[in-house]
Amino acid sequence: MSHKGILIVVSGFSGAGKGTLMKRLVEEYDRYALSISATTRAPRPGEEDGREYFFLSREQFERKIADNALIEYAEYCGNYYGTPREYVEKELADGRDVILEIEIQGALKIRKQYPDALLLFVSTPSAKELRRRLSGRGTETEEVIDRRLHRAAQEAEGIEEYDYIVVNDDLETCVRELHEIIDAAHHAPGRNEEFIEKMRRELEEN
Amino acid sequence: MSHKGILIVVSGFSGAGKGTLMKRLVEEYDRYALSISATTRAPRPGEEDGREYFFLSREQFERKIADNALIEYAEYCGNYYGTPREYVEKELADGRDVILEIEIQGALKIRKQYPDALLLFVSTPSAKELRRRLSGRGTETEEVIDRRLHRAAQEAEGIEEYDYIVVNDDLETCVRELHEIIDAAHHAPGRNEEFIEKMRRELEEN
């Protein structure tokens, strides 16, 4: 019904499958656009500029900060990470729902600028399953897994800040649930002001 | 995910198809329960006690008011109409989503008592289509149709009080949209406190 896109912020435990979910949403439905972050960290093997990240020099990144060209940014472990504004605003104006993955501090910064943004949190069905998925990757040491679970415990404290929580048990079910939640959000009166005004005008004239 | 039912209030223009939509929801999905209003007006031909309404005497109705046995009630054209509390609360406790049809004043009264209630507004795609449907019934005079359209214009003023607006253009699409909106509401963190606490406990222990 509504024609302006929704900004969708996806957070969740590392290992909950956010990346795969977002990829499936974009593949399955035309109306989603995936926002790609900018970073100053070096590309890892297999990563491509403009696919996983826009890889920038520190100088380029700081120019973007100065130009207010990032919706939000943060520094982790000596590297900058941020969300380029231009892509997000262009896609929203074109009526596409823009999805971006970010942790809670970034999510709350985005809500301040875009009060209509939809904040979604992705969880596993249990902590045990989270550990299993983190171990299953086979690439992490026990120590790294423990650190991630500890971090997940901290992230869990912020869940009430989100509009919705989804449990990624079965991938396809979860993709469908995310899509339904976003679909539902398009039906809020605040996102249908044009239609409501049209109805009012017509009914008055009737 | 959540186990407590949601109280769903459906309002909308007379002629927008609320009754049919609610009937289809209940037929198609087990988890919906339809709340039936009580009234002191006389049954019309074909109406059955406990199906369209619970038909009560004025005395019986006023006893229910005195006993706080109605969630809300109002008087129109000399007759009482109200929502029996017992059925609603029993079904919600059993985890069923209870749907009830009511106009805006009643909807706002219900929200005061049940702040978690979901308020849905059903519209036709246009005022012209509303007139067409009201005329199509063939049972109303032009005067009655004009009065209903005038009333619709008043009702349209309150749409922003609702959580969601749906347009009943194609019936099956609209049933699916209503179901999706209700499904989405089950994913609000406030409706999943038990799950969130469980995750937190497990992550702390991990």
Overview features:
homodimer; 206 residues; alpha/beta; Rossmann fold; five-stranded parallel beta sheet; four-stranded mixed beta sheet; globular
Short overview:
The structure is a homodimer of 206-residue chains. Chain A has 206 residues and is α/β, with parallel strands linked by helices.
Q: Could you please describe the fold and organization of this structure?
A:
- The structure is a homodimer of 206-residue chains.
- The first copy, chain A, has a domain at 7-35 and 97-205: P-loop containing nucleotide triphosphate hydrolases (Rossmann fold, 3-Layer(aba) Sandwich).
- Chain A has eight helices and nine strands.
- Chain A has helices at 18-28, 58-66, 85-93, 104-113, 127-136, 142-156, 171-185, 193-205; strands at 7-12, 32-34, 38-39, 54-55, 70-76, 79-84, 97-101, 118-123, 164-167.
- In chain A, a hairpin with a 2-residue loop joins β5 (70-76) and β6 (79-84).
- In chain A, α1 (18-28) crosses α7 (171-185) and α5 (127-136) packs antiparallel against α6.
- The mean pLDDT of chain A is 93.
- At the A-B interface, α5, α6, β9, α7 and α8 of A face α5, α6, β9, α7 and α8 of B.
